[in-house]
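Exercise 7. Predict the structure of YbaK/prolyl-tRNA synthetase associated domain-containing protein from Streptomyces ferrugineus.
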Amino acid sequence: MPEHTHHDLPHHDTYEHLISLLDSSHIDYRLLDHEPEGATEAVCALRGHPASEAAKCIVLRVKVDRRTTRHVLAVVPGDRRVDLDAVRALFDARYVGFSDPETAERLARAVPGTVLPFSFDPGLEVVADPDVVAQPKLYFNAARLDRSLCISGADYERLAEPRVERVAAAASAAV
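Solution. The predicted structure, encoded as tokens:
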């Protein structure tokens, strides 16, 4: 069977893919419908939980050396930010920065604001902060702006199999 490229994988398929993965893995999850919203603070308010229980998902470009660029999906608590220096140290990289929106969307198979803490692309490696997998309840947009998912951090870790490393920093006070 030919491999699907992202062109024939519209984003709603990412949602279906996630749900079938959860169902086939017999994982308890809750779906929450809400107003379309992708910004962490705003969507946490709609879902009615503290931002610390949200999984914030950021696609990063990691330049290991001149020839090698890797893409990493960093998953941190919603009230924190990604520590780019920690990610750089982790991969012994020369440079770490945010991916451009097109690349992020292609690899994550979701539009910004709906990126899952899972990777369905072999070119995207997931690194999750220990505080994410420790959450009894973890919320994230389910590859859609109008629907979110809640599962336990332990189930998330079992299913997504992220590399668990300290990659979250305190949210900076600077605006």
